[in-house]
Every structure is written in structure tokens, then in C-alpha cells.
Design a protein that fits this description.
mainly alpha, 6 helices, 61% helix, 0% strand
């Protein structure tokens, strides 16, 4: 029972996670490094237009999302730094 609840909460948080939302935003000039954390922080501080700045809508509860986004952004830091520097890693995904 506890595992199901934990899994459900994890999936729910990832569906609204700012980092996940910014991964496929593909907006030219949008921040890449710590993008989800920055999106949450921008929204918490009253930013007016997250869609224009980040290419993604902010999560409904950015204060609750901030720790998860910071963790996921940290795990993805090597990839986001490579992208920001213009280094092609030749990584592709999908089935």
C-alpha cells in the first residue's frame, strides 16, 4: 500500500515538474542549465510570463515542486551544460 502511494505521488509530481516541462520546451534563448529550478523560482517571485521566458507553463505549486526540480536539474547538469556549451553528445531517446 505504501509503495503504491509513493509511486502515485512520484508520478503526480513528475507530471507537473518544472524540469520535465522545460525539457521539451525547445524555445530559442530559453535557459537550459537548471531551467526547472529557475522556472519555479521565477514563478515564486511573481514572474509574469513563464511561457514567454522559458517556453513552458509553470507548475501549479512551484514551492512544492522546487526541491524535486532542483534534484532533477542537478542529475541532468552534465547534459544541460553540454547543451549550453553547444557540445553534441550524440544522445537520442525514444523507442
Amino acid at each position: 500500500m505504501r509503495r503504491r502511494l509513493a509511486l502515485g505521488l512520484a508520478l503526480l509530481s513528475l507530471s507537473g515538474c518544472a524540469t520535465v516541462r522545460t525539457l521539451d520546451a525547445a524555445k530559442p534563448g530559453a535557459p537550459v542549465v537548471y531551467a526547472g529550478t529557475r522556472l519555479d523560482w521565477y514563478t515564486i517571485n511573481g514572474g509574469c510570463c513563464p511561457l514567454d521566458r522559458f517556453g513552458a507553463e509553470a507548475p501549479r505549486y512551484p514551492g512544492l515542486d522546487l526541491p524535486a526540480s532542483a534534484l532533477l536539474d542537478t542529475l541532468l547538469l552534465p547534459f544541460s551544460l553540454a547543451t549550453a556549451l553547444g557540445v553534441s553528445l550524440g544522445v537520442s531517446g525514444g523507442l
